[in-house]
Amino acid sequence: MLAGRMKEPVTAHAPASSPDWALQTDLRCTHDLEGRLLSVSAAMADALGYTVEELLNTPMRDLVAAGYRRQFRAFLDAIRRDGAATGLTKVETSTGESRVWEYWNSLRDGAGGPIVIERRATSPSAC
Asked: Is the previous residue joined to 114 through a cis bond, with omega within 30 degrees of 0?
């Protein structure tokens, strides 16, 4: 499922570089405007059945359920256009289980260019 991962090193971006990031119980992440994960909270990695290291540089699209991938492209377009996006999406865990997540995202300036901060992803409930 994680085929196509980029092998580039990860640059620390705030808030992921803050000491509190690793302690977050919220499902949080940052990604670039193509959807490549730049930082991931341990809670998000655990909820998906991966380690933080396995998820870094992974295209978020690879975690989105197949039927929701067009929606993910529309989400990235909305972030570019509006600077924020909210909604529901379905993701798949490492074992193939489906989860519906609600998200509130905003666009910020990062050290390496624009990044999307997923402020909160909730409802890791099975579908």
From this structure: no
Q: What is the DSSP letter of 121?
A: E
Query: pLDDT (tens digit, 9 = 90+) per residue, 32-56?
Result: 999 999 999 898 999 999 999 999 9
Q: Contacts from 79-87 at CB under 8 Å and sequence distance 24+?
A: 79/33, 79/105, 79/107, 79/116, 80/33, 80/107, 83/107
Question: Which segments of the chain have a pLDDT < 50?
Answer: 1-17, 19, 126-127
- State how far the Cα of 21 lies from the Cα of 77, in Å rounded to an integer: 27
Residue type, 63: L
Q: What are phi and psi of 26, to 5 degrees?
A: -75, 155
Token pair of 86, please?
A: 């909210």
pTM score of the predicted model: 0.75
Q: Which domains does the chain have, with CATH numbers?
A: 26-126 (3.30.450.20)
